[in-house]
């Protein structure tokens, strides 16, 4: 592992053969405070918190609860998130935001880790959650006139 800088930003990269040949100077310029390891961009938990709006505590909690088995840990035990991992964190955030329980999200993530073999079951979960969201929207729309202030005296 070799350390370097790019416009004053710390960058780590490996010197193992051609693994990092797909990382161009332009790619490095567009990756502030991230590491490049084996030709892939790696974000630490603070960077992920900053990008997603979730706290480091929440990310650690989700990891402990089994929602992020895809996250790699480096030799020091620190979590390293790839760009693809950020997409999965966004998906977890979305499912949580729709009211899905952590237990159900964990099950969905486990199914996702199985790949195409679980596609039909994941589609069913999506459809059920979509129906749940539609019910929530209908309920909120029913409440909306009750909270609308049209000259009402409080």
Q: Bin the helical content.
A: 40-55%
- How far apart lie the N and C ends? 66 Å
Number-wise, the strands total: 6
Q: Give helix and strand order, one letter per element, not per position.
A: EEHEEHHEEHHH
Q: Give unreliable regions as ranges.
A: 1-33
- Structural class, from helix and strand content? alpha+beta
What is the radius of gyration computed over CA atoms, rounded to a whole number of angstroms? 21 Å
Outline the biggest β-sheet.
2 strands, antiparallel
Quote the average pLDDT.
78
Tell me the strand percentage band. Answer: 5-15%
Q: Count of DSSP helices?
A: 6
Shape: globular
Strand order of the largest sheet: 1-2
List the helices and strands and how they pair.
Layout: E1 2-6, E2 9-13, H1 25-29, E3 35-37, E4 40-42, H2 45-52, H3 56-64, E5 72-73, E6 79-80, H4 83-97, H5 102-113, H6 119-147
Antiparallel strand pairs: 1-2, 3-4, 5-6
């Amino acid at each position: 592992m070799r350390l370097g800088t790019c416009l004053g930003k710390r960058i780590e990269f490996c010197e193992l053969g051609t693994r990092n040949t797909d990382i161009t100077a332009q790619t490095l310029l567009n990756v502030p405070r991230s590491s490049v390891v084996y030709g892939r961009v790696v974000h630490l938990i603070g960077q992920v918190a900053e990008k997603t709006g979730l706290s480091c505590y929440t990310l650690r909690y989700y990891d402990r609860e089994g929602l992020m088995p895809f996250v790699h840990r480096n030799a020091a035990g620190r979590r390293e998130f790839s760009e693809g991992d950020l997409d999965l964190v966004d998906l977890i955030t979305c499912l949580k935001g729709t009211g899905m329980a952590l237990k159900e999200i964990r099950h969905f993530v486990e199914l996702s880790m199985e790949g195409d073999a679980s596609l039909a079951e994941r589609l069913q979960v999506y459809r059920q959650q979509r129906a749940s969201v539609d019910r929530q929207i209908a309920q909120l729309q029913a409440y909306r006139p009750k909270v609308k202030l049209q000259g009402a005296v409080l």
